Structures are given as C-alpha cells and as structure tokens.
Amino acid sequence: MELSIYNIEGKDTGRKISLDDTIFGIEPNDHAIYLDVKQHMANKRQGTHKTKGRSEVAGSTRKLGKQKGGGGARPGDVKSPVRVGGGRIFGPTPRDYSFKINKKVKQLARKSALSYKVKNQQLIVLEDFSFVAPKTKDYVALTKKLNVNEKKSLLVLPEPNKSVYLSARNLEKSKVIILSELNTYKILDAQYLMLTERSVENLVKNFNA
Questions:
Q1: Any idea what the Cα angle at residue 150 is, between residues 193 and 124, rounded to 5°?
Q2: Cα–chain-centroid distance for residue 125?
Q3: Confidence band for 19, pLDDT divided at 50, 70 and 90
Q4: How far is 155 from 175, CA to CA, in rounded Å?
Q5: Domains contained in the chain, CATH given
Q6: For residues 8 and 167, what is the distance between their CA atoms, to the nearest angstrom?
Q7: pLDDT, tens digit, for every residue of 23-41?
Q8: Of 167, 169, 202, which is closest to residue 8 (Cα–Cα)?
Q9: Under a CB-based contact definition with an 8 Å cutoff, are residues 161 and 177 in contact?
C-alpha cells in the first residue's frame, strides 16, 4: 500500500511512501480497540470519590428511643443511615480503576486504529519539516492547505520540536504529540492523523521490535 507524501504547502511532492500492510492494512479488530480505549479511560480515573458511613459521621451514639413500644422500627442513634444526616449505606470509597491488558492486544488495537484511518482516507503523510520560530499562523496555514483546518487533527512527530508544538498549542482542533505518546485513543479521537516520514519509519520499527 502506498500513500502520497505532501509538503507543508499542502502539495503532493510526487513521492510515495510504502505502508506496511501488517500495520496499516489489517482487518480491524473492534473488540481489541474497545479494550484498549477502556483501559486508557479507566487508568485516567482518579478514584478519589468518598462518602461517610455511619462510623464516620459526627454525632452522638445515644439511643434515641426505647427498643420496643414505639410502633415502628427499632430506633438507633442519630448516625443511622435511615435518619436525615446519618451515614450513607454502601457509599463509594477510594479505589483504583486501572487494569492491565496483554501487550499483543494493545498492539492489535493500535494497528486496527491505524488501518481504520487508512481505510477511511484520514491518514496524511508529510515530509519532515520544522518551523524557524513558533508561529500559530504558520500552523493554521498548514492545516488550511491540507484541508483539515475545520477538523480535529493530530500531528505525530518522531521527536520533540518546540517550534511546531508551540505553534499548535492554542488551536482547539489541532494537537501535536511525539510518537512515544501515540495510543489507540488519540488515533481514534482525531478525525485526521498526520504522520511525518520519519514518524512512519519509527512506528514500523517499534511494531517490529
């Protein structure tokens, strides 16, 4: 499978890059994608939710009425969960939501997400570039020339580039990350995925390592 390589002017350079079909052309596995995205979202949860039970609520432990003869349920203290201001029954407590999935499942999920991008013609390959200085208007011009300025786009660089990153930082629909930060969720969250030539090469090396 081959894709055209574009420059920062949005023009076809006339060169093509060969994509590995075992990474960019597989039959997507939706369940693997589901598991990987679920893990990503679960691992982001803080799990700090907490309510007070009857043993933690401030109040007296004095019994408020007689055991029998009241005509209703047996009375307890003011901290009883059935009373206003009492503790909560089975309330949430701090917990860790993170879980693990197999490395091969995560790799399958990422390959499936990349294959979806190629299949839906939402993958753009750019020749390696850099900006002389951080300028948002330069990055906006780049997205306009590639016709992705109205869409959520994700540019993946092979290594940190401060000028490019700062140029896109204030743009709501544009994000710039390095290859090591790429995951299934970020691939699917972007409507258009933009990879530089070196990013593609390093991505293939990482999968084949």
A1: 25
A2: 22
A3: very high
A4: 6
A5: 2-30+100-208 (3.40.1370.10)
A6: 14
A7: 999 999 999 999 999 999 9
A8: 167
A9: no
